[in-house]
Amino acid sequence: MGRTMKSVFISLILLMMFTCNVEAASIRLSRKKLSIKVGQTVTLKVRGAKKKKVKWKLTNKNIVKLNNKGKITGIKVGKTTVIARIGKKSLRCQVSVRKIASKMTAAQRYAIESAKSYLSFMAFSKEGLKSQLRYEKYSEKDAQYAVDHCGADWYEQAYKCAKGYMEDNSLSRSELIDQLIYEGYSPEQAIYGVNRVLWCE
């Protein structure tokens, strides 16, 4: 009788351990990876946890907003990890937030075409090109969109501008840098352009 009770007791312990392991293994997040847009909201769910308490946390709080129900909202482009803790078990979901794709208007498309046309035969700073587009009656918004999306390398433009000045004028290094800054190039772009011209000569 004693041996029988002992065997039953051991069997019960093993059964409980097996049940706990199966239950722990079955607990999972509804998603392991997630890609959302800025402003988009998605709710993560813990499956298999029944009514156990879940604690939510983030590795980077600047990317998404997270409440105590697992609801996340994208607030900034970037990556973070959502961690759900149930007892000693931690579940993770990698979240990537991307920006909302904007549709190009007809006016913006024409502005980009004009910007590329100007850049094909003359060097422009970003501000200089924007001013030229504004002179051509493009709106402030469309001109800004064009210079942001025309694909220009403004450092390369600074080099071309400096090279053009050196071919037609005899300027010192500091005078040439000042001239490029006057043309709308940043100090860094102006120095790069001038140094490249002088080093190549």
TrEMBL record:
Kindly give the SMART domains that the UniProt entry links to this protein: BID_2
Q: Which residues form a coiled coil?
A: none
Pfam families according to UniProt: Big_2, Lipoprotein_Ltp
Q: Which organism is it from?
A: Kandleria vitulina DSM 20405
Task: Spell out the Gene3D superfamilies in the cross-references.
Answer: 2.60.40.1080, Winged helix-like DNA-binding domain superfamily/Winged helix DNA-binding domain
Protein name in UniProt = BIG2 domain-containing protein
The BIG2 domain extends over 23-96
